[in-house]
Amino acid sequence: MSNTTTTTADDIDKTRSTISDVDRQLLDLLATRRNLSLKVADSKIQAGRPVRDRDIERQSLVDMVRRGRDLGLDPHLVTKLFQGVIEDSVLLQQARLHARENSEDETDLRRVAYLGGEGSYSQAACRKYFTRRAGKLVEIGCNSFEEVLEKAESGEADHAVLPIENTTSGSISDVYDLLQHTGLSIVGEVTHKIEHCLLSADAGLLPGQVKTLYVHPQVHAQCSHFLARLGDVDVIYCESTSHAVEKAASAKSGAAAIASREAGALWGLFEIKSDLANQRQNHTRFIVVARKPAHVPETVPAKTTLMISVDQKPGALVDALTVFRDQGINMLKLESRPLHGNPWEELFYIDLLGNIRDQIMVEAVDTLARRARFLKVLGCYPSEDVIPTEVPAELLRENVKAASGPKSKAPEKAEDKKVAAAPKGWKLGSRAHKPDNTIIRVGNAVIGEGFTVMAGPCSVESEEQVMDCAEHVRAHGATILRGGCFKPRTNPYSFQGLGYEGLDLLKAAGDRHGLPIITEVLAPDQVTEVAKKSDILQIGARNMQNFPLLRLVGRANRPVLLKRGMMASLDELLQAAEYILSEGNRQVILCERGIRTFEPATRNTLDLSAVPLLKQMSHLPVVVDPSHAVGRRDMVIPMVRAAKAVGADGIIVEFHPKPEEALSDGPQALTFPMFEEMMAELV
Questions:
Q1: How far apart are CA 81 and CA 41, in angstroms?
Q2: Exposed, middle or buried by CB within 10 Å (0-12, 13-18, 19+), for 521?
Q3: Cα angle: 203, vertex 205, 207; to 5 degrees
Q4: Strand boundaries in 59-210, DSSP class E
Q5: Are 193 and 169 in contact (CB under 8 A)?
Q6: Based on CB atoms within 10 Å of each CB, which residue in 186, 229, 534, 625 is the most buried?
Q7: CA 674 from chain center: how many Å?
């Protein structure tokens, strides 16, 4: 027994050593690829070609996914890996072109000021940005935003890195206010993922035992939901996260700080809880400023930031902003801050997508200058927003050439639309109110443009089951993962779903395979919690006229799929949608899922005539649920064909690894091969 154990341990050590060797080889290859990317950048400089060629990127991804599949690798893993590699390559090339345009010497010493010290988020952002730029980096930690700017303004630092906005807590007002008075220019931006952890010198300390908490005010705002549950804690605000960690390391028992796990490791602190932010996707955007403005090459995507004030009269701001509409310039952000010294007057900060040297931008700024009381260009800089290239499912099939993107329906012409008069009960959903189709975007999925497939199990039953389904959804071209977590069952003894545990499993499967998720919410008290994790909220047929529930999902900033009741007219369906629309949520998807008739051959009668009628009456997208309509898997695919033929915007369909063992609605669930057959017809 002892020899066997020793041999097994030796084998594991050898295997781990081999894995380490492979990992080192991967790093060497990534470094080699980076150097080749720089050579490509030099060629693009000479040829005047843009940094990105999406067709080449798409074909490269298709080739890699196909080769990975031959090697037994998960297509989604390969896609995410090479999307990251492509993003790094794009940003690296942009940095090289930007440096050449501004005559930056590769031997330059780069002195950069930022908030905090070793381990602060600003330091991490600083390193992330300047790692892609040649020269030696000298870091200058500061105790306040004012000091950061002073270092750059005085020449003690060449650049300053400042956080400007966060996806959870919003704009960082102190920084915007400081930009009113500085002569520095914005020359760059970088976005950094923020992962807050509760850290303590006591490894056994539980969150509920924390007595003193050291935290930066912005971090406190980003973790407010978690902190509200801590109870009676003495909160001490610090200048930065690195200062918070430093103080917690030397404090008495019961003290903790919120910062990154990397910062905690530097001070010997233990992570006692992670993932503290109110939102799971918690990112901070930083700007990089310098004394001299930068010039962005025409081949590099650019942003321009302006600061303006307008006369205090009706319509002045609207008149100013229409300049960008008239010139076809995309305005990415509009932020207002009080104008210092002028009570009740505002300064407006505007981020635009475009290069200040482009002719349309020159004309727009000139026109704006004539309409504004004050205008200043704060900077033009390369955009770090690298939109991932997606691989359409049809391009992964061996017999299809990578010649085009996803198929979509030809847009309807305005004269082809038949607009019904808007009854008083559903005016917001009517064509009279909005003639154009509503298009809803969720992650990489689009509903209302093309034919969208939402697919997955009727009920989330286990981690293995929902992960298998998610992998199948992704591999065969569907774009949204469905799964029931709270199940409204006619029989009180039937499986009622895993509840929030199931929601966590569904979310994990969606994240793992890059899919937005949809699940049903049953009761008003579930809306807030379910909306934190589900990308789309589903209102089932039994709840179509649950008016308190409709009002609450109408206040949630999540798209809502509203199913037609089993005995509801189209007018009643649209009036139910109006409850949601009237509360402010204009992202509503109508769903035809069959109505109850005298015919017992199928579970319900699928009313396909409802699809073109609803599209005449309403601007909202319309999808079909063939699974619940017919209740028989052999009828689902024919109904899918019919739904597409009558103009539906998509389907929501059920499939299961083993339908005969499904805990709910097994007879209507497609098998995996049937789902593959269906998707092969659709893509």
A1: 21
A2: buried
A3: 130
A4: 109-115, 136-142, 159-166, 170-171, 185-193, 197-200
A5: no
A6: 625
A7: 31
φ, ψ of residue 85 in degrees (nearest 5): -65, -45
- Distance CA(605)–CA(488), nearest Å, equals 20
Q: Which residues contact 299 (CB under 8 A, 6 or more apart)?
A: 44, 48, 49, 50, 51, 97
Count of CB atoms situated within 10 Å of the CB of 461: 23
Q: pLDDT tens digits, residue range 104-139? A: 876 678 999 999 999 999 999 999 999 988 889 999
**Measured between alpha carbons, how far is 34 from 85 in angstroms, rounded to an integer?**
9
- Partner residues linked to 381 by β-bridges: 303
Interval 505-533: pLDDT, tens: 999 999 999 999 999 999 999 999 999 89
CA–CA gap between residue 344 and residue 337 (Å, rounded): 10
* Cα–Cα distance, 233 to 256 (Å, whole number): 10
What DSSP character marks residue 443? T
CA distance 161 to 112: 7
Q: Three-state DSSP class for 407? A: coil
Query: Taking each helix axis from N to C terminus, what angle separates 547-555 and 570-582, rounded to the nearest 10 degrees?
Result: 50
**DSSP secondary structure string for all residues of 343-387:** TT-EEEEEEEES-TTSHHHHHHHHHHHHH-SEEEEEEEEE----P
Name every residue whose Cβ is closer than 8 Å to that of residue 381 and which is 6 or more positions away in sequence: 186, 187, 188, 189, 287, 288, 294, 296, 302, 303, 305
Q: How far apart are CA 294 and CA 102, in angstroms?
A: 7
Q: Which of 445, 442, 471, 443 is nearest to 456 (CA)?
A: 471
| Bridge partners (DSSP) listed for residue 163 | 286
For residue 314, give every residue at least 6 positions away whose Cβ sits within 8 Å of its Cβ, in sequence order, or none. none
pLDDT tens column, 422-459: 566 788 999 999 999 999 999 889 999 999 999 999 99
- Give the pair of three-digit tokens for residue 146: 């004012």
Measured in residues, the chain has a length of 683
Question: In which residue are the tokens 């900033």 written?
Answer: 557
pTM above 0.85, yes or no: no
What is the β-pairing status of strands 536-539 and 517-520? parallel
